[in-house]
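FORM 7B: Structural annotation worksheet

SECTION A. Query
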Amino acid sequence: MWADLGDASVLYLASREVSQERIHGIVHDTTPEAIYLNSFFDTLFTARVLLARRLSRLPPARLILAPRGEFSAGALALKAPRKRAYIAALKAGGLLRNIEWHASTSHEAEEIEAALGKATAGRIHVAPDLGALPNPNDLSNWQPRNPGAPLRVCFLARVSPMKNLAGAVRSLAKMKTPAVFTLYGPKEDAAYWAECRRAIGDLPSHITFEDGGVLTRDRIYGALAQHDVFFLPTLGENYGHVIPEALSVGLPVVISDRTPWRGLAAKGVGYDGPLDEDAFAAELDRLAGLDADAMTDMRSACRDYAQAVLTDPAAIEANRKLFLR
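SECTION B. Predicted structure
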């Protein structure tokens, strides 16, 4: 049944309930002006909505699809033959006609066009993803480290090859200074988690691993704020919501150069660089060497930067235009 959530009405469906008939009924009952889909490769919702529309089972409505970074080079390289076949099948079946695309950045817009061809030209809208600022109470969870205490490093993401947890662990293993590395996130890929566990087992004695489990939405900011550094050597993000979330609670970030968050060192809020485990380890060691005053100043810069980004009126207006066209 429909439930109210703020100004929205939300209908949650179990996987077994997502059928052509159910989608057809929901769209006819709500008569939407636009249908917004998250993920290109989602076979549960996206593919079934596209097929229903192709079979003329949906009333006229704008169809907007957000790939969420799925067309980045790193993402397409994972299970590449299967993804190429899937794209070819949707093209051949005419399921991609007259779709509008939501790109979070101009770079993602280029990736969409490169992956799907000229049919997307003129139909890609760039609108930055939106986030929220934390509750001020969450900011008090951080306490300065005592001299010589381990650097508190955290990783918050799905445990999947794309997020590169194994690379993060190998980077930690190359650190010279003590650190506590906390993982938050669901282990959605059992085979990859087994690979990560082997890397964890090889960590030197001065690096401690802790499994923080899966966080509910209301615990994310408070959990992040307890640490000194957020570390995510991802293979690619179209936006990476957890990055501004970490910055918003004052957490410097150490990430790969495969996200829109670039030039962080110049802003004094972290580091973005190539997928080089030695370089990541060196940056983490550098941050471990900062005294309490320097880290406090850096955390303040992180919060200021995140607030400017998350309250940018241009980003909000771009999203309004996306849906009001």
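SECTION C. Observations
The first strand starts at residue 3 and ends at 5. The two ends are 30 Å apart (CA to CA).

SECTION D. Sign-off
Analyst initials: ____
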